[in-house]
Amino acid sequence: MILVKDVMLSAYAGKDFGIIEYKIKLMIIKMLSIFLLSLTLYSCSDSSKNLSLLSSDATILAFGDSLTHGTGANKGEDYPTLLAELTNFKVINAGVPGEISSKGLERLPNLLDQYNPDLLILTHGGNDILKKLSRKEQKSNLLAMIELAKMRNIQIAMLGVPEPGIFLKSAEIYEQIANEANIPIELSLLPDILGNNSLKSDIAHPNARGYQQIAEGIVEFLEDNGAL
């Protein structure tokens, strides 16, 4: 078996051996670094967060506040209704406008027991942000919601909610929560839509077109994570 080092030595035949040895060591170190980086990226991939394929008769519980309820659009234009049309799944709209995460945590257990969903789509905490409530408490509440679903063997997918700003992006705690709970999260969908005035009915809510794009974005998100 010809070693990498032997091949490199032949390429430098006739040159100063000390310099050759040094250059060979550098090249080997670089190759090993690339190999180890590849292994690290692979091990840190989100494959462990992927969802299981949903059965044709699956039930999805869309849980949240006004963004789930459909505030800013007409009845039937909310994203859960549109998601049901796109997937042919039963999608329960469990959105309550103005709700903060502590109240959502109180409300969720009965809904999980009532509907026994196959998937929980969690989009909550925006009102905590708007009301400048404790981020620590918000994070704790959302993690507790996730744990309630996991205890019932219900899959969870999460949407990040943006905080106010010129350039919208999901509040940092959402990615932290998803990493700690090891669940898939879509961080850019809501910020992209709420950052586009043509897709909004007011400063904080999408219009019908915006909700349509949320539904379509969730379908893509679920496909990417193996649920569809």
Describe this structure in words.
- The protein has helices spanning 4-11, 17-43, 66-69, 79-87, 101-115, 126-130, 135-151, 172-181, 189-194, 208-224, and strands spanning 59-64, 90-95, 119-123, 155-159, 185-186.
- The model is unreliable at 1-13 and 35-47 (pLDDT under 50).
- It is globular and about 80 Å long.
- α4 (79-87) crosses α10 (208-224), α5 packs parallel to α7 (135-151) and α7 (135-151) packs parallel to α8 (172-181).
- It has two domains: 4-45; 55-224, 3-Layer(aba) Sandwich (Rossmann fold), CATH 3.40.50.1110.
- It has 228 residues and is of the alpha/beta class.
- The longest helix is centred in the N-terminal third of the chain and has 27 residues, at 17-43.
- A five-stranded parallel beta sheet has the order 2-1-3-4-5, sandwiched between helices.
- It contains ten helices and five strands, in the order ααβααβαβααβαβαα.
